[in-house]
Specification:
Distance between the termini: 35 Å
Shape: elongated
Helix content: 40-55%
Strand content: 5-15%
Largest sheet: 6 strands, mixed
Number of strands: 15
């Protein structure tokens, strides 16, 4: 599904907090050295006797006298120890090198003052002590710096989205004004039924009086459900864009905080804002984060999540506003875990399923994304739509982007059909890893393994159509046999599942027949075959011995709070019968694959040698090599019409086989 929505406005950049922290540290250090001077120099600490003696001998060259508290003098200056020089030159050098700094604290006696004023000191300077104001200034500056650091570290962090500590209970919903919403229904492709259901909501937001006069009541809420990547968020934006009303967007996780009661307060504040701007749309993404069922039987009944959910239930019961309606849209892919009270009529009255697009929907989505990519005139998007069953809108957007990246890598001026097909294979099966060095004996093993898969699939009547065979590593696989449906399918028959099991075991059987040995490369094949056989017996009731009965575990996701008390286990005897039946199904299909490869041993050898020579063969090359006509069903599938005005078939999951390392 495409998204041509509006671009978010860039928020103003705030200066990083660390900058202010380091600035404060450097400022403190600078003030310290400025006010205290350089204490690292060589300064003589004279005793009173040494100072008086030097003063009487005329050795004190300068004296800066500062009167301190309690009649004490702090005296600093230069002094020189007199000695008898040998010559005038030596006297000059001695004078230059013997001057030293000194410092001393002395009581301010009359005798000391007399000696200082006797004229024996060349430079005498006397001043009052004013260091007390420097200390006060230093302490004030340090205090200001500490307060500033605390502000930038804590206050700005707590303010976050526009408030201080008292703003925790304010809603974090982001309001988008109508002029800023550029998304329309034309930007949403591949889900026509969902658009038809949401158009009623748009009409009501535009003209609610028409519905009220008829006695109709529009749904207060609509729950958008479906697999990831199908465009649930995009659909909500399109509703707000078409209705031209304010759009409040928030995630379910934004309600929950470490403080109890914050979530409920945010819910109330969000609905109050929506009512003030009614008519408006509230969109809650991933609502399962806050709307999980309260009836789990685990823990207390007053935790933060339940209070938030209770507040939401109460608010959704009273969404009427004097200015118009407030519609709540929510998105989730886990409807099974939501609280029943949230889904009842009067709250989320309607569930709108946005499923994977069919072949027509995929074609429309490709058209939307093709507007942003320069495509060659020979590109056939119909072919791409047919060959991508099971793709979501996000997958198709990724495919087009990968095709553009591949075209740029190969220095193409336009994305070609080959680029699109390579991008599809990359998205489905992983990127090629041609740099990996494979020993010759492992390469031969891989060739026979993949040839076995392909040959069994060709000779199975109900097998999924062959797409490509390669012995070039992709992802974690050393080789791949790719099968891909060219029509949309929603169910599989028993014969199709049996053929899939036989195909999965074809690689292991080929190793046994040709090389008289087996490898670990079939581990994923065996797991795939076992899972299908187990589902046939336990989930689909396809076992003749055990009958149409569901056994054992469910295949869907488990919600522990609800399912922990359920007991779906079987008796020991039933479990043993299930294991035996699964083993019988897998063993029977292994024997079937052995019979096919034994009968067509010459084709197996021919296909393996071609793979060793060419590394990759598509379906047509394989059929031409084996001199087998392509089945009519494959050619019919390739001709499915994707025109929305005609009948079309629909998606199936691509089936691939990975030979793991």
């Amino acid at each position: 599904m495409s998204d041509n929505g509006s671009t978010k406005k860039g928020a103003s950049r705030r200066p990083p907090t660390a900058l202010f922290v380091w600035l404060g540290i450097f400022l403190v250090i600078g003030l310290f050295f400025l006010l205290n001077g350089d204490s690292a120099g060589k300064t003589d600490q004279l005793t009173p006797h040494e100072f008086v003696t030097a003063l009487e001998n005329g050795e004190i060259l300068s004296a800066d006298v500062t009167s301190g508290p309690e009649r004490f003098f702090l005296i600093r200056g230069k002094w020189q120890k007199n000695s008898a020089p040998a010559s005038a030159e030596e006297d000059k050098d001695l004078t230059a090198h013997s001057e030293r700094s000194y410092e001393i604290n002395l009581p301010a006696t009359d005798d000391l003052i007399t000696k200082l004023q006797s004229g024996k000191v060349a430079k005498l300077k006397y001043e009052e002590d004013n260091s007390w104001w420097q200390g006060i200034l230093f302490n004030v500056i340090i205090g200001i710096i500490i307060i500033a650091i605390l502000y930038f570290v804590f206050a700005r962090q707590m303010r976050g989205s526009g408030g201080g500590a008292m703003q925790f209970g304010k809603s974090r919903a982001r309001m988008i004004l109508p002029d800023d919403i550029k998304t329309r229904f034309d930007d949403v492709a591949g889900c026509e039924e969902a658009k038809a259901e949401t158009k009623e909501i748009v009409d009501y937001l535009r003209d609610p009086l028409k519905y009220k006069l008829l006695g109709g009541r529009i749904p207060k809420g609509a729950l958008l459900t479906g697999p990831p990547g199908t465009g649930k968020t995009l659909m909500a934006k399109a509703v707000a864009g078409e209705a031209n009303v304010p759009f409040f967007s928030i995630s379910g996780s934004d309600f929950i905080e470490m403080f109890v009661g914050v979530g409920a307060s945010r819910v109330r504040d969000m609905f109050d804002q929506a009512r003030k701007h009614a008519p408006s749309v509230i969109f809650i993404d991933e609502i399962d984060a806050v709307g999980r069922s309260r009836f789990s039987g685990i823990g207390g009944g007053h935790d933060e999540r339940e209070q938030t959910l209770n507040a939401m239930l109460v608010e959704m019961d009273g969404l009427e506003s004097l200015n118009g309606a407030v519609i709540v849209l929510a998105a989730t892919n886990r409807v099974d875990v939501l609280d029943p009270a949230l889904l009842r009529p009067g709250r989320f009255d309607r569930q709108i399923v946005i499923d994977l697009p069919d072949i027509r929907g995929r074609r429309q989505i490709l058209d939307v994304h093709a507007k942003n990519v320069r495509l060659a005139p020979t590109v056939d998007l119909d072919s791409v739509a047919r060959s991508t069953p099971g793709f979501s809108g996000a997958d198709l957007a990724n495919l087009m982007n990968e095709a553009a990246l591949l075209a740029a890598r190969y220095n193409h001026t336009e994305a070609t059909q080959a680029d699109l097909e390579e991008a599809r294979d990359k998205v489905c099966f992983g990127a090629e890893r041609r740099s990996r060095i494979i020993p010759p004996h492992e390469k031969k093993l891989t060739a026979y393994h993949e040839a076995g898969h392909a040959l069994v699939n060709i000779h199975c009547e109900h097998g999924t159509p062959l797409h490509k065979v390669t012995i070039i590593p992709r992802g974690q696989a050393l080789g791949l046999t790719m099968m891909m449906d060219h029509v949309d399918r929603y169910s599989r028959t028993r014969n199709e599942m049996l053929d899939t099991i036989a195909m999965s075991l074809g690689g292991r059987v080929a190793e046994e027949i040709v090389l008289d040995d087996i490898s670990s490369g079939a581990s994923q094949d065996i797991a795939h075959a076992t899972n299908i056989a187990h589902a046939m017996v336990c989930a689909y009731g396809m076992s003749e011995k055990l009958g149409p009965v569901k056994y054992g575990e469910r295949s869907e996701h488990i919600y522990v709070g609800r399912d922990i008390t359920r007991n779906d286990s079987c008796s020991e005897e039933t479990l043993r019968e299930i294991d035996l039946e699964v083993k019988n199904i897998v063993s029977a299909q292994k024997d079937r694959a052995t019979a096919i490869l034994t009968q067509y041993r010459d084709q197996l050898e021919k296909l393996a040698r071609a793979l060793l020579e060419n590394e990759t063969l598509d379906a047509k090359q394989v059929y031409d090599l084996l001199e087998i006509p392509m089945p009519v069903r494959d050619t019919e599938q390739a001709g499915v019409d994707v025109n929305p005005e005609t009948d079309a078939e629909s998606p199936a999951d691509p089936v691939n086989d990975d030979q793991q390392q």
